[in-house]
Amino acid sequence: MKKKIKLIAIIVVIIAIVVLGFLIYRKNYFVDTKYIHNKLEKASELTTAKLTFTGITKYSDDGIYIINRADFTMVYRASVRIGIDLSKVKVDKDVMKRKVIVTIPNANVLEVHVDPSSIEYYDTKFALLNFDSKKDSNKAQAAVEDKAKEEVKNMGVLEMANEQAETLIKGILEGSIPDGFNIEVKKVDM
């Protein structure tokens, strides 16, 4: 009878050790992708690069020369914010390869702001009946913001912002994944 009790006690201890080991092993493999996704999505946007530059543009509307056509050159200073929209992030896991895969959109121009106090007008042509000079200035400023987006894309800043986004995402998630897991960041057009 004592042997049976010892045998049962040993079996219970072995089962407890196996179950405990399994729970510890499983805890290391548990990755809550929803938690990771929510952590990133709360930030909404991630600015990965900021650029300030001075630009020059020529503006001319559809009016008749000298009568009502606005025609001027504008020098301005613009600040551009480049980054990613974190609401578009997707998070997956590969437990067997021990990695968390974060798919993010490629960096894009998030905002262009032309500083109104920096705007200077040159080479302003006279127009006898141009009463919409303020509207012309606003149209020129809106056109400048669109032009600035294109200029930034041609400067190569987006590639640098993509690299920075990967580094920042890994930094944000560093304490959110289990030990032994790696973070893989994939960038795609969305």
Task: Describe this entry's structure for a reader.
- The chain has 190 residues and is of the alpha+beta class.
- Helix content is 41%, strand content 32%.
- The strands form 2 sheets. Strands 1, 2, 5 and 6 form a 4-stranded antiparallel sheet that branches. A 3-stranded mixed sheet has the order 3-4-7, covered by helices on one side.
- Strand 3 and strand 4 form a beta hairpin.
- The longest helix has 28 residues, at 2-29.
- It is rod-shaped, with a radius of gyration of 30 Å.
- The model has no long low-confidence stretch (mean pLDDT 77).
Features:
7 strands; rod-shaped; alpha+beta; 190 residues; 4 helices
Annotate the secondary structure layout.
Blueprint: H1 2-29, H2 33-41, E1 45-60, E2 71-85, E3 90-94, E4 99-105, E5 108-114, E6 120-122, H3 133-155, H4 157-173, E7 182-188
Parallel strand pairs: 4-7
Antiparallel strand pairs: 1-2, 2-5, 2-6, 3-4
